[in-house]
């Protein structure tokens, strides 16, 4: 990240204590641990948003399980005869 912005956050004492313990176990700074946690949260949020947006399509296609998704992907990827 080229553009860094310093910010402060308030955490419950016990959460900070646990974060410091994990940072020490991972041999990283508390700041790096918090950056990693925020990045993971943002990625998870984006994934969940995408799932919500795709849900109506999935229901229309009868996709309800992970196996259904795999079948649909397999079907999309297989070669289809050219028209014309």
Describe this structure in a few short sentences.
With 84 residues, the chain is an all-alpha fold. Helices cover 68% and strands 0% of the residues. The model has no long low-confidence stretch (mean pLDDT 90).
SSE order and pairing:
Blueprint: H1 13-25, H2 30-61, H3 66-77
Summarize the structure in words.
This protein is mainly α and 84 residues long. It has one domain (13-77). It is built from three helices and no strands. It has helices at 13-25, 30-61, 66-77. α1 (13-25) crosses α2 (30-61). The longest helix is centred in the middle third of the chain and has 32 residues, at 30-61. The protein is elongated and about 65 Å long. It starts with 12 loop residues before the first helix and ends in a 7-residue tail after the last helix. The relative contact order is 0.06. The model has no long low-confidence stretch (mean pLDDT 90).
Give the proportion of residues in helices.
Answer: 55-70%
User: Which stretches are low in confidence, meaning pLDDT under 50 for 5 or more residues running?
Assistant: none
Mean pLDDT: 90
Order of helices and strands: HHH
Largest sheet descriptor: none
**Which structural class best describes the helix and strand composition?**
mainly alpha
Estimate what percentage of residues fall within beta strands.
under 5%
What is the 3D form?
elongated
Quickly count the domains: 1
Total helices: the number is 3
Span of the ends, CA to CA = 50 Å
Write down the Rg. Answer: 21 Å
Number of strands: 0
């Amino acid at each position: 990240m080229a553009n860094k912005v310093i910010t402060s956050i308030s955490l419950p004492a016990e959460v900070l204590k646990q974060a410091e313990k994990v940072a020490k176990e991972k041999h990283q700074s508390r700041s790096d641990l918090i950056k990693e946690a925020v990045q993971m949260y943002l990625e998870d949020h984006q994934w969940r948003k995408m799932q919500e947006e795709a849900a109506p399509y999935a229901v229309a296609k009868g996709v309800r399980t992970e196996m259904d998704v795999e079948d649909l992907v397999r079907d999309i990827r297989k070669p289809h005869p050219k028209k014309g």
